[in-house]
Design goal:
It contains 9 helices and no strands. It has helices spanning about 5-15, 30-40, 45-55, 70-90, 110-120, 130, 140-145, 165-195, 205. The chain is globular and about 50 Å long.
């Protein structure tokens, strides 16, 4: 059975993400793009490595979580969302990016695309193969176009004129289709890595934080001595 989150779960996740004050922290749309890149990419990325990027630094804001229980809830929602994306791509189903509409009902996709590039940056050298592939590299074009639409450097902007509604819709559709293509492109490499190191698999089992892993909250303690401690209810 495929993992799912309810609208209330997503509202809760978005609300906690919006508490992080660091300018590098991710909102829910950026998080979705960030996870898509990590899951589609050539090499597995462990939660202890990617979680600090959610709040923009080694440790989350002290007042971001009201209690350890709320932190556990947040981590559970994050990893469940990871599994939603992973299981969708693994099954071959259509992956629909989380792209929010503005007050006028228009979806822009810039934040999602920027989140995807953030994910690529974690394994930048490993993405060079696809970037240099003339046959398959086009899957990244819509993502780069939306990520750099408002770039401070005019030379990095994809178009001289503003992107109109029709072209934007084409880019967002192309972005969604590109994710499936990218996932298939790197699939042989991921399988090869999984055979050499089965514990690196990105299945639901491996996305859980191990008891002896560093706690993803950034405390520096082992997970079992921090947020992984049993909680009395």
């Amino acid at each position: 059975m495929k993992a799912t989150l309810t609208d209330a779960d997503y509202d809760r996740l978005a609300g906690i993400l919006n508490r992080f004050r660091d300018e590098r922290a991710l909102n829910l749309e950026q998080l979705d793009g960030f996870f898509a890149a990590l899951i589609c990419g050539p090499d597995p990325v462990h939660p202890s490595e990617f979680l600090p990027h959610l709040w923009g630094g080694e440790m989350a804001d002290e007042d971001a979580f009201e209690s350890r229980r709320e932190l556990k809830e947040f981590l559970d929602l994050v990893l469940r969302h990871w599994n939603v994306i992973a299981e969708t791509l693994q099954s071959g189903d259509v992956y629909v990016p989380v792209v929010f509409e503005d007050n006028e009902g228009a979806a822009h996709g810039n934040s999602w695309a920027q989140g995807f590039l953030r994910g690529m940056d974690l394994r930048r050298a490993d993405w060079a193969e696809l970037l240099d592939d003339e046959e398959h590299g086009g899957a990244l074009v819509p993502i780069f176009a939306l990520a750099h639409e408002h770039d401070p450097d005019p030379t990095l902007r994809p178009y001289q004129e503003p992107i109109g509604p029709d072209r934007r819709e084409q880019l967002i559709v192309g972005m969604a289709a590109g994710i499936s293509a990218i996932y298939r492109y790197f699939e042989p490499r991921r399988r090869a890595i999984a055979k050499l190191s089965p514990e690196s698999s990105t299945s639901r089992r491996e996305t859980k934080v191990g008891r002896n892993d560093p706690c993803p909250c950034g405390s520096g303690k082992k997970h079992k001595h921090c947020c992984g401690r049993p909680t009395l209810h």
